[in-house]
Amino acid sequence: MPDAPEATIPAVPRGGGLSAEARAESSFSGAGAPAFRHSSLQRIADRWAHWAFLACSLLVVGLIGGILFFLASRGLAAFLPVAGNTGRVLSCSEVFLSADWAPSSDRFGILPFIAGSLGVTGLALLLAAPTGILTGVFIAKMAPAWMRNLMRQVMDLLVGIPSVVYGIFGLTVVLPLVSRTWLADAPASGFAVSAVILAVMIVPTIVSLSTDAFESLPASLDEGAQALGSSRWQAIWHVRIPAARPRLLTAPVLRLPLSIRHALPLHLVLANHPPSLPL
């Protein structure tokens, strides 16, 4: 008589055939599951907090909108024939595209101001960006530990110095030094001095952001470059700087609005006339 075939019994997975997620849900749905309940007082407090935060946000937006509306209404009054405008109506071309600045004769060409501010800012960024990035490389990869900590603290202090202090430093220290040299008779000497002082203001922020960008890169980049026979400078120039390029470009962009804002008053203080370019 032939043997009957053996019946195969399917293996039951550990845990009763339930997955880990199902077991976790079943464990929390039992009698011992914690019940997260809020009292009516807590719900009222949360609701009032929500409305308070919303009111603060709307207040900030309203203040900014009010400032913009006031500036726009006062500024557009010079270009539109409105009641109370005692002077002549100006055109946009003679204001923004003219270099003739004579307020006593009703000529308000601000093109030299705009071009000078952008020129001072551009020259300052050209001086500050390479200096700040290379200083960040030195702090992050070459400086010893004690010097790294000291320079980071110094850069953090320089970031917090008000711009008026830099202006006074340029007026009392840098400008007298330049006036005693042959640079005093050089063309656009005040323009160059303003750009140098503005670059000194920008450098600490670029150094801090560049140092953070290089320190955030993984150590495997250096290890891979050294394994391929690269020197330290080759690894920095061909590996680390391209890897940190997005964050390195962020540093000058963050300082660009502040540089444009301080370019005109800084040049007015140092050179005693508006920043102008030969147009």
Short descriptors:
279 residues, mainly alpha, two-stranded antiparallel ribbon, 10 helices
What does this structure look like?
The protein has 279 residues and is mostly helical. Helix content is 68%, strand content 1%. Strands 1-2 form a two-stranded antiparallel sheet. A hairpin with a 4-residue loop joins strand 1 and strand 2. Helix 4 packs parallel to helix 7. The longest helix has 37 residues. It is flat and about 75 Å long. The relative contact order is 0.10.
Tally of alpha and pi helices: 10
Which structural class do you get from the secondary structure elements?
A: mainly alpha
The main β sheet shows up as: 2 strands, antiparallel
**Average pLDDT rating:** 76
Secondary structure: number of strands: 2
Low-confidence sequence ranges: 27-33, 273-279
Q: What is the radius of gyration?
A: 32 Å
Distance between the termini: 114 Å
Principal-axes shape call: flat
| β-strand amount | under 5%
Quick description:
The protein is mainly α. 68% of the residues lie in helices and 1% in strands. The chain has a two-stranded antiparallel sheet.
